[in-house]
Amino acid sequence: MQFGIFSVGDVTPDPTDGRTPSEAERIKAMVAIAERAEQAGLDVFATGEHHNPPFVPSSPTTMLGYIAARTERLILSTATTLITTNDPVKIAEDFAMLQHLADGRVDLMMGRGNTGPVYPWFGKDIRDGIPLAIENYHLLHRLWREDVVDWEGEHRTPLQSFTSTPRPLDGVPPFVWHGSIRSPEIAEQAAYYGDGFFANNIFWPKEHYQRLIGLYRRRYEHYGHGAGDQAIVGLGGQVFMRRNSQDAVREFRPYFDNAPVYGHGPSLEEFTAQTPLTVGTPEQVIEKTLAFRDHFGDYQRQLFLVDHAGLPLKTVLEQIDMLGEEVVPVLRKEFAALRPAHVPETAPTHASQIAAQSLPKA
Fold first, then answer.
1. Cβ atoms < 10 Å from Cβ of 170
2. CA 192, CA 213: separation in Å to the nearest integer?
3. Which residue positions in the chain have pLDDT lower than 50?
């Protein structure tokens, strides 16, 4: 099973001292977080994509290319690649280039983002969000698999005899996740292509994500990619840990109360009771994360958010060390013991996709 970190890259004042990091500091902090994730034995680092303050990661492939040069094993991914407002031709070329630079250690997550104004900034209409996601990904899927593409759609200029360059490394496109917090159409899209489905699993009660993941599993089987329990599922999670649960709650509370997304809303206690947020000891994180399997079935990737809301870098690195030393080894063992033999243990990687291509056809 793959475990890792995802970052939304927010630049938020630290509520305990009022200090706001510069954009340069925040960008370099994200690089340090990725490096520490590899050092701690985690598998994945994923960055969001945003084009508005208070976020800095507007160019994920630039950041991931830099991280690729500073790491050896880490899978480099996105927590959102905006399939709606990015040109699919540019996505195809940017991520193929990153594949080559990173020796295949690349996948990505398609999403529509959570910022409505981004659509007109890039010449799009938010009312076309779902059609854009469907059409753009259909083109991207072809660009990675066909050397010469003729194409015409509703939302971009036609292509005639077009070849995106560079071609995917070893002829194998990056594995794609489709991320959604609310749209059954995206779960359907992931199932249709046999791609992965990633449920953010942070802000909403489990029943909401159970419906989306359940739909994805049923439709994955319907399209003939395998049994529903073999579908490739990823989940988000949100944690803050200390050796003593009371210390964790006391230290995290001001960050929670002032966080850009959920600050000044439900109490910390209400939020932890109703969502997957875990604030407590490593043992409590293990217990709550193991329960995700009870809610959603066996799954292949677990990413944790640990660096938001103004938390100092030193604190974030401590969180990653605790995940690597105390939490993830137990989760790996427990999830592996529970997983049926026919269910994939991990999401596809570049190496596993090459190996699958060499297998004889049934």
1. 14
2. 14
3. none
Query: Whole-model pTM above 0.90?
Result: yes
Query: What pLDDT was estimated at residue 94?
Result: 98
Q: Which residue has the tokens 């060499």?
A: 358
How much is the pLDDT for 152?
97
Sequence-distant (6+) residues with CB within 8 A of 334 are: 286, 290
Closest to 90 in 3D by CA, of 134, 54, 143, 129: 143
Comparing C-alpha atoms, which of 197, 5, 187 is closest to residue 109? 197
208 is written with which tokens?
A: 């909401």
Model confidence over 191-249: pLDDT tens digits?
999 999 999 877 777 888 999 999 999 999 999 999 999 999 999 999 999 999 999 99
Return the residue matching tokens 């994945």: 44
Distances (CA, A) of 357 to 141, 168, 227: 17, 14, 20
The answer to whether residues 229 and 217 touch, using CB atoms and an 8 Å cutoff, is yes
Domains of the chain: 2-358 (3.20.20.30)
CB 214 within 8 A of CB 146: no
| Backbone CA torsion sign across 342, 348, 351, 354 | positive
The total of other beta-carbon atoms located within 10 Å of residue 294's CB is: 9
Q: What does the DSSP assignment read for 117-179?
A: THHHHTT--GGGHHHHHHHHHHHHHHHHH-SSEEE--SSS--EEEE--SSPPGGG-PPEEEEE
Cβ–Cβ under 8 Å, residues 1 and 301:
yes
